[in-house]
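Intended use. Records like the one below are meant for learning the mapping from a protein sequence to its folded structure. Do not use them to infer anything beyond what is encoded.
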Amino acid sequence: MRKTNIRPWTKEWAKQYTQDAQRLKEIFKEEVIDIFHIGSTSVPAIGYAKPIIDILIVVKEIEKVDQYNKKMEEIGYDARGENGISGRRYFLRGKDNRTHHVHIFQTGHEHIKLHLAFKNYFLQHPEMAKRYGDLKVALAAQFPEEHERYQQGKQSFVNEVVQKLKKNGELI
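Structure written out for the chain above:
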């Protein structure tokens, strides 16, 4: 069972993203269209996050990503296939003590826009980012040994943000 580990935001997360993004660009080379730092570690105003670097990679053809599983394993990533999201390739590093998640989608996939709109919303609304960070801290204290319950606790807030994005026309 994974523990819920929340840490204060640090500039170190941006450095970790930059280092891994470069390695990932070298692995996926001509397949990569773009690469982004997403998730709470990419938004200082959230204030707190699980110390896991979320990386979003946009590729030309999702099926070709599977050819790189061995190279990803060589740098410490586990390939998890779609892992519950159709059209995604998901990799994690660190098993129970995760340090990185890589989400790969083919250009045009709806989850690309969702992840980027969610991040941009918090960058543009620091008061909401702070509320999200405070919620994370409270839930981690309440459910330190129950990661699934922590995730469930965040869901209504996440849904609220997604609804605002839809209302503003940022998501369809």
